[in-house]
Design goal:
17% strand; 15 helices; binds guanosine-5'-triphosphate; binds magnesium ion; Rossmann fold; alpha/beta; six-stranded mixed sheet
């Protein structure tokens, strides 16, 4: 049974859309929805979130529809969850635990698993108190009755042991994640040194990021009509056919009310996108909530410090979007960002060439080390080397100007006829072998 609360400033449609999404999340996690309840409130109730009167009502409805869990659309405070569980006499869950559960099911890499476990333990720790307090309350009663011994009830002792064990585990996970991060940093530095421009696919979960990566690079990343199919970062080379070298990354999708603990835990994976030269913000243009999803994605980008990067909106799934809605969406995006969105379908391949062209157009070129003797008739290339590169050595002779320089790739391409060796030969990068 799903429960949403409509607070002032939120329309019923917004609450319904959020519950639709919670239903999709639940479906992905392996649950089935029997009933949904929406309660209007001026503010969440501190003790019960939905209000005391509503709790008894929920208990009756839960029995009636045979619900074995009641799922709230917002993260509940630990005390609220406990009070609700006592009042409804059913398992009480919230959006956060459902998302954590999906992440736990989908994590495959060691890093992904460690990240999810860290977020889960962070969620669990303040909620341990629940049964611990109930038990120590009993023991406390005994102690107050004059027994003296056992003032620390067994519940509390056990709770302390559990808590300490969890804290140790959290420290271990954090240390492990630091190691993973170091490896990731090294790889990123390597790319930086080689100046390979990178575009990162970002966007709402299920928008089609992995499908686009596959389309653009011939990769075979798992694509599924499930939320959070991708949890790990994948890096692939994009061949635009002009000899330039560009890298594309795919990573975990975002969702509204993404638990903060998860963002924290996944920070290093998510930061993969903050190092990109261009964000390809993929949007499911056939989704009725497309614009709200754009906003939600930007909120997470801001949280990870990626909101200042150049952004290219990619409206995907145009094969199943309503043409009028699509045109209106594209217009609004263009007005707001000042850049026209690219319209594509990862399934039919429509618009993919335009997308590749736009990526190449908006990415800075690679820099290459060149050695060449340029004839005087092409002195413009020497000037370009100064303007768009660094000249290490310049000598004039009867033949022309001999240069050793590090220049933008386009300049190197123009110099091709006079280059002494081939700076375009590219060794496969170690990170490509993943
Ligand atoms: N009709 C249509 N379906 C698409 C298109 N692109 C992707 N899909 C479908 O949308 C679903 C999600 O695609 P993914 O590529 O896994 O999406 P994602 O953004 O990587 O999702 P997560 O990794 O779960 O965040 C799959 O069922 C795809 O087949 C498209 O252009 N048209
Ligand atoms: Mg994916």
């Amino acid at each position: 049974m799903l429960v949403g609360v409509q607070l002032p400033g939120r329309t019923l449609a917004e609450v319904e859309a959020s519950l639709d999404e919670l239903e999709a999340l639940l479906d992905t996690a392996g649950g089935e929805v029997a009933e949904r309840i929406i309660q209007r409130r001026e503010a969440p109730d501190a003790a019960t979130y939905i209000g005391r009167g509503k709790v008894a009502e929920l208990r009756d409805i839960a029995v009636e529809v045979h619900a074995d869990a009641v799922v709230f659309d917002d993260e509940l405070a630990p005390a609220q969850q406990r009070t609700l569980e006592e009042g409804i006499r059913q398992k009480v869950l919230d959006r956060t635990i459902v998302i954590l559960d999906i992440f736990a099911q989908h994590a495959t890499s060691r890093e992904g698993k460690a990240q999810v476990e860290l977020a889960q333990l962070g969620y669990l720790l303040p909620r341990l108190r629940g049964w611990g307090q109930a038990l120590s309350r009993q023991a406390g009663g005994q102690a107050a009755g004059g027994v003296g011994i056992g003032g620390r009830g067994p519940g509390e002792t056990q709770l302390e042991v559990d808590r300490r064990r969890i804290m140790r585990r959290i420290s271990k996970l954090k240390a492990d994640l630091k190691d993973f991060e170091r490896v990731r940093r090294t790889k990123a530095l390597e790319r930086e040194r080689n100046r390979v421009p990178t575009a990162a696919l970002v966007g709402y979960t299920n928008a089609g990021k992995s499908s686009l990566l596959n389309r653009l690079t011939g990769a075979s990343v798992l694509v599924e009509d499930r939320l959070f199919a991708t949890l790990d970062a994948t890096v692939r080379r994009l061949d635009a056919g002009d000899g330039r070298d560009v890298v594309l990354t795919d990573t975990v999708g975002f969702v509204r009310k993404l638990p903060h603990g998860l963002v924290e835990a996944f920070k290093s994976t998510l930061e993969e996108s903050t190092r990109a030269d261009l964000l390809l913000h993929v949007v499911d243009a056939s989704h009725p909530e497309a614009e709200a999803q754009i906003v939600a994605v930007r909120e997470v980008l801001e949280e990870i410090g990626a909101d200042r990067l150049p952004e290219q909106i990619v409206l995907n799934k145009i094969d199943r979007a309503d043409p009028d809605d699509l045109a209106a969406l594209a217009r609004r995006v263009e007005n707001e960002t000042g850049t026209s969105p690219i319209l594509v379908s990862a399934v039919t391949g429509a618009g993919i060439e335009e997308l590749t062209a736009r990526i190449m157009q908006r990415l800075p070129g690679r820099r290459l080390k060149v050695r060449a003797t340029i004839p005087f008739s092409r002195h413009d290339l020497v000037a370009a080397a100064h303007e768009r590169g660094e000249v290490h050595l310049e000598e004039h002779s009867g033949e022309g100007t001999t240069l050793v320089a590090t220049v933008d790739e386009e300049v190197a391409i123009d110099m091709r006829p006079w280059l002494e060796d081939d700076p375009f030969a590219v060794e496969p990068e170690p990170w490509e072998q993943r």
